[in-house]
Write a structure and sequence with these properties.
Helix content: 40-55%
CATH architecture of the largest domain: 3-Layer(aba) Sandwich
Bound molecules: nicotinamide-adenine-dinucleotide
Distance between the termini: 26 Å
Strand order of the largest sheet: 2-1-3-12-11-4-5-10-8-9
CATH superfamily of the largest domain: Isopropylmalate Dehydrogenase
CATH class of the largest domain: Alpha Beta
Shape: globular
Number of strands: 14
Structural class: alpha/beta
């Protein structure tokens, strides 16, 4: 029986997770996956109960589970805590303990939401990009690092470090993902000035030539990639890049679609994965029942595709979401005149209704 650890977290986290679980039950009823769920408290609410944002028991549950679902963590209540016990530490802890080295962030524009984008309709219409970001290496973890006294002042140091196996494993995720899509990968680096990304380009190319010659591979410098994402985003299918560049590019790509309430994500290590909406705990709207649960529900669709080898069930959820939007239903964050405004729970119910058709 596939076991899913539920880390609902804080703020709107539990609200969107509740709707996501209902959707997973509905898809389970259709396909007979036999999902089992186990609660694994994390974040500020876990700190309140156990004095740590990532209790050992929750980590153990996450390790034992076949997949982890996370709502969101954080909130004003815990902002004055020491960094070591802030709710967000739970995310970093889970990522590193589960060795989730590949972060997948799709940026797909649902046609009925086209006017939410700040770009012209003809530029964004039909975009469907997947940013594959390396998540456990690169400049965020490289050593030496720190701030030190230097010649009467100070000197800050961070190091960009990648090894051949680290580059190979993330490139493999990108190539495999591209095979399930349109077969195109653009590898983004800064090989003209950073030796480490010169190696990145070399390794990606060698792996492509040896094992993925069917994939259409291109390379782009990160500055140009930023421009191209805004100028002509439709040229991209899968983008693979380093931790730092991926952090920036995935946010830029995501915003092409206009709404943070619609963006899912997956962080993977093989088929083991943690799935979470891109948004945070939204303390400003928590407890009001108005949060958009679709990013969370779409993250569950990614879970079916990447952890449970059921891409067609994942696609069913995506189709149901598209149908609900097509019919004019909107949560407050994506509401526009003439549409039907619905609550978090109503949005969940509508998706389930579509799944039943
Ligand atoms: P946020 O994503 O929580 O909210 C930004 C804005 O978007 C807010 O106005 C919010 O109301 C709105 N919003 C976000 N998700 C929404 C949804 N599903 N439906 C409708 N509106 C939505 O970002 P923030 O305000 O910068 O951060 C709030 C807290 O969340 C902080 O403590 C931060 O550290 C944490 N955070 C957690 C994660 C995570 O758990 N993965 C990610 C980002 C931020």
């Amino acid at each position: 029986m596939p076991l899913i650890a539920l880390c609902a977290g804080d703020g709107i986290g539990p609200e969107v997770t509740a709707e996501t679980v209902k959707v997973l039950w509905a898809i389970d009823k259709k396909h007979g996956f036999g999902f089992e769920f186990v609660d694994a408290p994390v974040g500020g609410s876990a700190y309140d109960l156990f004095g740590t944002p990532l209790p050992a028991d929750s980590l153990e549950k996450a390790k034992k589970a076949d997949a982890v679902f996370l709502g969101a963590v954080g909130g004003t209540k815990w902002e004055s805590l020491d960094y070591s016990v802030r709710p967000e530490r739970a995310l970093l802890g889970l990522r590193s303990e589960l060795d989730l080295f590949a972060n997948l962030r799709p940026a797909r524009l649902f046609a009925p939401l086209i006017d939410a984008s700040s770009l012209k309709r003809e530029v964004v219409e039909g975009i469907d990009i997947l940013v594959v970001r390396e998540l456990t290496g690169g400049i965020y973890f490289g050593k030496p690092r720190g701030v030190e006294e230097y010649e009467g002042g100070k000197r800050g140091v961070n190091s960009l470090v990648y090894t051949t196996p680290e580059i190979e494993r993330i490139a493999r995720v990108a190539f495999e993902s591209a095979r399930k899509r349109t077969g195109k990968v653009c590898s983004v680096d800064k090989a003209n000035v950073l030796e480490c990304t010169e190696l990145w380009r070399e390794v990606v190319t060698a792996l492509h030539d040896a094992e993925y010659p069917d994939i259409d591979l291109s390379h782009m410098y990160v500055d140009n990639a930023c421009m191209q994402l805004i100028r002509n985003p439709k040229q991209f299918d899968v983008i693979v890049t380093t931790n730092l560049f991926g952090d920036i590019l995935s946010d830029a790509a995501a915003m092409l679609t206009g709404s943070i309430g619609m963006l899912p994500s997956a962080s993977l290590s093989g088929t083991k994965g943690m799935y979470e909406p891109v948004h945070g705990s939204a303390p400003d709207i928590a407890g009001q029942g108005i949060a958009n649960p679709l990013a969370s529900i779409l993250s569950a669709a990614m879970m079916l595709t990447y952890s449970f080898d059921a891409p067609s069930a994942g696609a069913e959820i995506e189709k149901a979401v598209a149908a609900v939007l097509e019919k004019g239903y909107r949560s407050a964050d994506i509401y526009s005149e003439g549409c039907k405004r619905v609550s978090t729970a109503e949005m969940g119910e509508l998706v389930i209704e579509e799944l039943g058709k």
